[in-house]
Amino acid sequence: MTSQAPSLLDLEDVRRDVDDRLAAVLADRRAVLRGISADTDPLVDAWEQMLRGGKRMRAALCYWSWRAHGGDPTTGARTGVVGVGAALELFQAAALFHDDVMDKSDTRRGVPTAHRTFARRHADERWAGDGDQFGLSAAILLGDLSLVSSEDEYLAATAGFPVEAAGPARDVFTQMRTEVTVGQYLDMYAQVLPWGEDLDADEHRAREVIRAKSARYSVECPLLLGAALAGASSDALERCSRFGLPLGEAFQLRDDLLGVFGDPRTTGKPAGDDLREGKRTVLVVRAMRALDDVARKDLSGALGRPDLGDNEIAGMQDVIARSGAVEEIEALIGTLTDEAFGAFAALDLRDGPGETLAAIARSTVRRSA
Q1: DSSP 84-131
Q2: Half-sphere exposure of 73 (CA within 13 A, CB side)
Q3: How do strand 111-112 and strand 107-108 relate by DSSP bridges?
Q4: Residue 30 forms part of a structural domain
Q5: Where does residue 352 rank: exposed (0-12), middle (13-18), buried (19+ CB within 10 A)?
Q6: Please, how many CA atoms are within 13 Å of residue 260, restricted to the half-sphere of its CB?
């Protein structure tokens, strides 16, 4: 995030309160799991590691959308909205556990991913069987645990809201979880199809993945949840979507740039990790379109090789940069951001909270991690 983002996310103690709520959830889960077996402590340790240090952007977007649409922080409803923010963070943790398995990622936020941690423990303890499979299985189960807890936290947090607010919010939460799961499949599907033969189709699929897997759950759905819990009308929710979806696309396009060119000290992942994972992003599609046949074949052949060395990554970064694709993606981010804030102007929001919401929204596309 930019240097201003932490202060924005800390306003009205949103991040602190969401962190406190997550700590309470994990303490409760640790007690429950210990009641089943003392051997479960490493699961909760890995769960805590995944949740530690997050920016809480989704929780903040939800909270400030609630405030901007008329939510009163002096009422008990605030505790419920904080709980919904915690549910969003638990859902994100579930998605990340599973995403790291599917992408075969080695690190997350600068530390080994859960499946690598459990595989290493298996090796260190000289246990029987396949250590890599043990690690994968543990990470999948961690994702399932976090998903179940996300549902539990959401239901508890919204129990006190009137049905006219809780009903639309529940519809958003349910649809969000379905879309992310389908988006993960579409991402996998796109990566096994013939590549580079129809670049228009490749870009269309990449944009579909962006919307289903990231844009909606990262930005649009948190905004809709906050608005719905504040009692926003169906028309207001529709206007909120017109703001949130293009902003969410811009957010993910920024993430795609960071996945290729980001500084590992701020992203917590190795430089060019998306290239090793073979991500077929709009950035890579635009680069492929600009290259000649030989360069396109070279880039396509290298993309997705997990053994790519630092020099090879640097060479691919240079090819993508010289293609003009980075400038095209920056321009697209700008266009989508302008579209989003054109829609933002039509929202009927309270001035102070609305300004905070706008500032946080802008920070999502101006980040470095």
Answers
A1: HHHHHHHHHHHHHHHHHHHHT-SEETTEE-HHHHHHHHHHHHT-SS-H
A2: 12
A3: antiparallel
A4: yes
A5: exposed
A6: 28
Divide the 369 residues of the chain into consecutive groups of 10 and give the mean pLDDT of each group.
Answer: 60 96 97 96 96 91 98 97 98 96 88 96 97 97 97 97 97 96 92 87 95 94 98 97 97 94 81 88 96 93 91 95 97 97 94 96 85
Asked if the structure places residue 67 within a domain, the reply is: yes
Helices (H), the chain: 5-10, 14-36, 41-51, 57-68, 77-103, 114-125, 131-158, 163-190, 199-209, 221-229, 234-261, 264-267, 273-277, 282-290, 293-302, 310-322, 325-344, 351-363
| Domain of 215, in residue numbers | 5-363
CA angle, 25 then 28 then 31, to 5°? 150
Domain count, the chain: 1
CATH number at residue 297: 1.10.600.10
- Residue 368 included in any domain: no
Q: Is-above-0.90 flag for pTM?
A: yes
Tell me which DSSP letter residue 13 carries. Answer: G
37, two tokens: 């077996």
- The residues with which 108 forms a beta bridge, in sequence order, are 111
Question: Is residue 150 domain-resident?
Answer: yes
